[in-house]
Amino acid sequence: MTVATYGSLGCRAPGPGRELYAQPSRLICEQPVTEDAQLIQRTLDGQSAAFGELVRKYQDRLYNMMVHVTGSREDALDVVQDAFVHAFVKLDTFRQNSTFYTWLYRIAFNAAVDQRRRLRRAVSVEQARGASGQEPRDGQPRPEEQLEQQERQRLVRQAIARLSEEHRAVLVLREIDGCCYETIAEILELPIGTVRSRLHRARLQLREQLKGVLVFDE
User: Fold this and answer.
1) Which domain holds residue 54?
2) Of 107, 109, 108, 105, nearest in space to 28 by CA
């Protein structure tokens, strides 16, 4: 799973480990995928197993994204399941003007927003585990280093969850999923200029929330 690096926020980590998670190796700018089109057509022709292949192809990626959007693993699982059901039922309305994943993500994101508004509850976050007390094997960080890194990860997830929905959406798509501006604009149905401005504000808000936790470069 990937999330924003310290570098993308213009800061450096105090102590061991400069990154919370690995930075996406490349920015993703979605292009039409012939394989997906074939699976979609087979599904529409009555071969439901073909849709199962689409589920297996995208479920992990979508789930990881929804964890950050909802702030809860359980809620993310519900959202992903609902999104795939909705996509299956409405597959005949997909016009393939965008990629299947872009369309699927939009369904899931809207479901996540509706869920958060409906539940109106505090965002749950994963708690850092305590050190095991065992000696680390070669090449592995010491238990106290693992605990420090887990705590930093927890604080960043909390900070992301406190962003407004519109700012969290662009930040997650850009920094976690590695989408290019064009894809983000297509998913959220926004002008690219709006995407850029929201991303800038989201980064500033995240930096402000994490002052005192991370050491920022001036």
Assistant:
1) 31-117
2) 105
